[in-house]
Amino acid sequence: MMSFRARLLFFLVRISGIKSRLLREGAAEKYLKHNHAKGPALPVRWLRKNCKIIESDINGHRLFELAPKSDGSNLHIFYLHGGGYAFNIVSLHWHFIKKLIRKTGASATVPIYPLSPEYKWDQSYAMVMEAYDRAVAKHGADNIVVMGDSAGGGFTLGLAQMLRNQGKALPAKLILLSPYLDQTAADPMQEELEETDILISIEGIRRLGTWWVREGEDPVMFPVSPLFEPVDRLPPMLAFAGSDEVLLSDSLRLKQTAAENGARIELKIYDRMQHVWMLLPIPEAKKAQAEIVNYLLAAKV
Question: What global pTM score does this model have?
Answer without folding.
Answer: 0.96
